[in-house]
Amino acid sequence: MYDVLVVGGGIAGTSIGHELAARGRAVCVLEAEPELARHTTGRSAATWIGGYGPPEVRRLTLASRAFLDDPPIDVAGPLLTPLPCLYVGGPDAAPDAAAGVLGVAVAPAEAEQLNPLLRPGWTSVAVLDDTACELDVAGLHQGYVRALRAAGGEVRLRARVVGATRAAGSWRLSLASGDVLAAPVVVVAAGAWGDEVGRLLGSAGVGLEPRRRTIFGSPAVVPLTGMPFTCAIDGGWYVKAEGGLALCSPEDAEPHAPGDPRPDELEIARTIEAVNEATVLGLRSVRTAWAGLRTFAPGGEPVARYDDDVEGLFWFVGQAGYGIQMAPALAREAAQRLAEV
Question: Are 63 and 208 in contact (CB under 8 A)?
Fold first, then answer.
């Protein structure tokens, strides 16, 4: 018997699990896979960008900065490393392309100084966010797991939920292993599988839409040292240096069923062409490629609330690919909201 059962062991589940355990709740996090962070959390591009996402995401991201700068939990090293973000647009960029992009507008010549790998003369508009950072995703996630356990919480692997019943104010969750666990409250933090888990508990779901995001690493013909995180100002691609490769994404967002998506080869080819047009990286081949799912709720804002119709079901889903950079503030606020009822 627990106070709260959390379904999902990614950054969402472990962060809110820690916050609840730190408040004295008896918490158990249930992960269906044989290891944690196998899906979206483990496939992140690992950045913190304060101006990235819709307004509520930006608020939560900025509110998480103090935690990430000086973590109150046990982590192996710094979670943030400065990595300026440079948004650039080429000769075809719209006159108002920079509208709504947070940062400082810079002249094309200055943009080429900030990123010497931009193709000379290509840039027509640029915005710099010099507060952006590289984020140690594994370090943050593992820190949450350690903090959860240190506060008395538990984590169970291979704990797939296959059934649920509620009686006398308590849930009984049946696992594929045959175990049955009980708690008054179940937190659904299962990412792309959130609605599926919610339906097991009798909910109609919240209308989640998983969308594929492709990422690939490509060798460049020039050294990548000192290159800022560089994004197309219209959202069509980004590129950063990682492990000696140019790590790129087409920033695709095609709807995809919950599961293990495959990278989109056509989008990779388009991105290579676009990056080569904007830079002198000279990308030709792909060394590694993968894809993950970013799960959106209607309206694009994260969901952190009790279900409207099902007692004891708390939704913690719809982080839409921003879940890691806003995890500390979102988990703290959600745990407080859960405890108030």
Answer: no
Radius of gyration of the chain (CA): 21
The Cβ-side half-sphere exposure at 76, using a 13 Å CA radius, reads: 9
**Residue 308 to residue 305: CA distance in whole angstroms:** 9
Residue 88's Cβ-count burial label (10 Å; 0-12, 13-18, 19+) is buried
Query: Structure tokens of 190?
Result: 């299962």
Tell me the longest C-alpha to C-alpha distance in the chain: 70
Chain mean position to CA 103: 21
Q: Is the sign of the CA dihedral 330, 213, 248, 270 positive or negative?
A: negative
Instruction: Give residue-wise pLDDT tens across range 271-321.
Output: 999 999 999 999 999 999 999 999 999 999 999 999 999 999 999 999 998
Q: Could you tell me the domains of the chain?
A: 4-76+136-207+299-339 (3.50.50.60), 84-131+209-296 (3.30.9.10)
Cβ 43 vs Cβ 291: under 8 Å: yes
% of the chain surpassing 90 pLDDT: 90
Q: Please tell me whether the overall predicted TM-score, pTM, comes out greater than 0.70 for this model.
A: yes
| Torsion angles phi and psi, residue 237, rounded to 5 | -170, 165
341/336 Cα distance (integer angstroms): 9
- Distance, in Å, from the CA atom of 252 to the CA atom of 236, rounded to the nearest integer, reads 8
Q: Rounded to whole angstroms, how far apart are CA atoms 315 and 162?
A: 18
Tokens of 28: 């158990």
According to DSSP, the residues that pair with 181 across neighbouring strands are 173
Count of Cβ atoms closer than 10 Å to residue 79 Cβ: 22
> CA separation (Å) from 9 to 5, 15, 124, 137, 335?
11, 9, 44, 14, 16
In angstroms, the CA 215 to CA 217 distance is 7
In three-state secondary structure terms, 317 is strand
**Got the DSSP string for 186-208?**
EEE--GGGHHHHHHHTT------
